[in-house]
């Protein structure tokens, strides 16, 4: 195990060019993660000073790599704009309004060798979105598609548990190699840190982590591209969602909700976000449908929004227990009722994305 104090001492041996202090003493070491054979942190700088700090980042990486037992190092230099304080209350109000208004998507880089990117979202936590994401990805793979899953919930990653994964990804030629499980390529921040590690990251750090996993993972190759990358988003409409929208073209979104009004109201907000930035909602899914929470709420909401309704999933104990055991129920019981429902959803989604394995197969 790498000693955290040794890491901080090595970083303090690298000088901050502005303050003249060591990096840790100057407060430039943020989100530090130290684990067996590896260490990483985020260093923020104003946009106009990134060129000044690029050599500092390189020096920090070299200092960490020189530590005994260090096998892998990641130092992320990210630019954070420092806004001038507004002089009038009206200016402050306008700035807050503009910040809360999603901008039109400015997609830069689609992940290399990925044909389609599908976001699975929910406005509210606890609706089973990750369970739906994993089983939907498995259903798409069962239809003959090459499928990857990116766990974008950096604060509460669940993909390693649901797919029975552990261990850090391998690196080849500077790119992370995703794990393979149940026919799916998978990447999660939960594979880069210990399960008990708390990710105490500000918004820019979380966004940078997502961007790195999105663009620096070898999802496919020129000879064998990935058909669809399923991105399991965290609940809400915050930094991670906006980062994904701005960094890569999204081909569609699926919104998961329970039948309750409190969940439907948040699903409404998620749909509004995607609509505002031009990402098509391919459909709503009602999870935990049945006597306990009611049924039909998501279908009625889809009709109000003018969005497709993909179907409902029962409050099924086997669905939860299969995820806890590290195997999607779609693969554990491929001929069961739940798998049949996921297959119907996958067929419609594949068709909407223009992929083989859809309604026209």
Textual characterization of the structure:
The protein is α/β, with parallel strands linked by helices and 361 residues long. Helices cover 36% and strands 21% of the residues. The protein has 12 helices and 13 strands. The protein has helices at residues 4-12, 50-65, 89-100, 129-142, 159-163, 203-215, 239-247, 261-276, 297-305, 317-324, 329-332, 337-352, and strands at 30-35, 38-45, 72-79, 114-121, 147-151, 170-172, 175-177, 179-181, 184-188, 226-232, 252-257, 281-289, 309-314. Strands 8-9-5-10-4-11-12-13 form an 8-stranded mixed beta sheet, sandwiched between helices. A 3-stranded mixed beta sheet has the order 1-2-3, with helices on both faces. It has a two-stranded antiparallel sheet with strand order 6-7. Helix 6 (203-215) packs parallel to helix 7 (239-247) and helix 8 runs parallel beside helix 9 (297-305). The longest helix has 16 residues, at 50-65. It is elongated.
Could you give the topology of this structure?
Layout: H1 4-12, E1 30-35, E2 38-45, H2 50-65, E3 72-79, H3 89-100, E4 114-121, H4 129-142, E5 147-151, H5 159-163, E6 170-172, E7 175-177, E8 179-181, E9 184-188, H6 203-215, E10 226-232, H7 239-247, E11 252-257, H8 261-276, E12 281-289, H9 297-305, E13 309-314, H10 317-324, H11 329-332, H12 337-352
Parallel strand pairs: 2-3, 4-10, 4-11, 5-9, 5-10, 11-12, 12-13
Antiparallel strand pairs: 1-2, 6-7, 8-9
Helix pairs in contact: 4-12, 6-7, 8-9
Summary of the model, kept short:
With 361 residues, this protein is α/β, with parallel strands linked by helices. The protein has 12 helices and 13 strands.
């Amino acid at each position: 195990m790498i000693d955290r104090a040794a890491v901080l001492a090595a970083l303090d041996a690298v000088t901050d060019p502005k303050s003249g202090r060591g990096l840790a003493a100057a407060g430039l070491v943020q989100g530090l993660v130290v684990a067996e054979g590896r260490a990483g942190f985020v260093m923020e700088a104003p946009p106009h000073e990134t060129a000044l700090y690029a050599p500092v980042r390189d020096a920090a990486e070299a200092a960490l790599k020189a530590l005994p037992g260090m096998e892998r190092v990641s130092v992320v230099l990210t630019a954070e704009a420092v806004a001038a304080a507004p002089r009038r209350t009206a200016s402050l109000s306008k700035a807050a309004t503009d910040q809360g208004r999603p901008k039109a998507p400015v997609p830069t880089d689609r992940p290399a060798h990925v044909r389609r990117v599908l976001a699975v979202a929910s406005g509210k936590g606890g609706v089973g979105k990750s369970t739906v994401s994993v089983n939907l990805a498995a259903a798409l793979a069962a239809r003959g598609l090459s499928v990857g899953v990116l766990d974008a919930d950096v604060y509460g990653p669940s993909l390693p548990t649901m797919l029975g994964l552990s261990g850090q990804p391998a690196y080849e030629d500077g790119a992370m190699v995703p794990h393979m499980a149940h026919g799916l390529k998978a990447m999660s921040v939960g594979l880069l840190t210990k399960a008990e590690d708390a990710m105490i990251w500000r918004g820019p750090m979380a966004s940078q982590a997502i961007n790195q996993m999105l663009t620096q993972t070898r999802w496919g190759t020129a000879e064998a591209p990935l058909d669809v990358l399923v991105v399991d988003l965290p609940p809400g409409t915050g930094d991670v969602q906006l980062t994904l929208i701005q960094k890569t073209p999204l081909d569609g979104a699926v919104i998961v909700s329970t039948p309750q009004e409190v969940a439907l109201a948040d699903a409404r907000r998620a749909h509004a976000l995607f609509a505002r930035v031009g990402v098509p909602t391919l459909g709503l899914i009602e999870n935990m449908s049945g006597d306990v929470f009611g049924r039909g709420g998501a279908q009625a909401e889809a009709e109000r929004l003018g969005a497709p309704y993909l179907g409902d999933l029962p409050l099924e104990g086997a669905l939860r227990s299969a995820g806890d055991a590290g195997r999607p129920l779609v693969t554990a019981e491929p001929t069961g009722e739940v798998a049949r429902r996921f297959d119907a959803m996958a067929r419609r989604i594949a068709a909407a994305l223009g992929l083989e394995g859809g309604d026209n197969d």
